[in-house]
Amino acid sequence: MARRSRSDEVLSLGQITELVGGALHGDAPSGVRVTSVAELDGAGESDLVFVADQRRLPQLANCGASVALAPNALAAEAHENYGLPVIGVIDPHAAVAVILERLYPLVAGGQGISPHAVVATSAVVANGAIVGPTAVIDENATIGQGTEVGAGSYVGPGVSLGAECVIHPNVTIYEGTMIGDRALVHSGVVIGADGFGFARGVSEQMKIPQVGGVRIGDDVEIGANSCVDRGTLRETLIGDGTKIDNLVQIGHNCRIGRGCAISALTGLAGSTVIEDGVIMGGHVGTAGHQVIGAGSMLAAMAGVHGDLPAGSVVAGAPHMDIRVWRRAVPAFTKLPELLRRVRRLERRLDESSEE
Predict the structure, then answer these.
(1) pTM, full prediction
(2) Which of 7, 85, 232, 311 has the highest local Cβ count within 10 Å?
(3) Which are the catalytic amino acids?
């Protein structure tokens, strides 16, 4: 199975600066070489560290690293106050991602089709694809060039997987699913199971057959043990570049746009529409049939019970503008004392009226 493997590459400060498009503040001995990225409290002389904001700068004082990354606005200050060379960048997290990709490249973990896999005669597996032991590729499925299907995974009838995808072990992909190129699907994911669709009969819940499918774009990542339900009549959609964390539920008929980020434990009820660039914190919930406008941000544990216009920033359950929520939460903790004061005032008013 594809995995990250530490390379033998050693990077100079000049190479790192060029790699991340940064600006170096301060000189360093010519022998400084970087082989890894480390946390601030455990770094050694061959490590690179990073600080993302002002609060972390003091930790550079006792840091053993040879070089640090910092936002451009803080890089000069960090060098002047703490001595070590600092590379200023627009976004330290993005810069670290680039460096880690270089130092820990993705390495294919197998070759060809395992003799212990089951591949239907009508399935098409491209040259260069990898199918692991006990994986099952069902009738008329298509596996693209360079795609890996891990041990124990199931690719259902007619499923299409694009090029250079990584399907980790024990993933289940039902029929009627189409996945684009370079998808990354982690273990335990189920794609294309029936949506939760029932009609209230006279004496029981009647199952509504779920006959739609699932279509997933390019460069999508789906975290471990997440579920994407098939549509009732049409496809459930996930747009290019969207990233989904572990333990996320995507209900039937949901339509998720491009470049979204959905954190763990979030649940999207059926027919929720998430437009492009939406960011959702952990444990967000939608009531279904809602539209979340492009570029909106939903704080952790937000409960959405209505449409949100583009660019909304909300928190709380039921959701509210985050500025209102920040004022409401401190007030909520004072309610018991306020209630006691109101009761005392009511008693005084009653006593005054009796006199």
Answers:
(1) 0.90
(2) 85
(3) 252
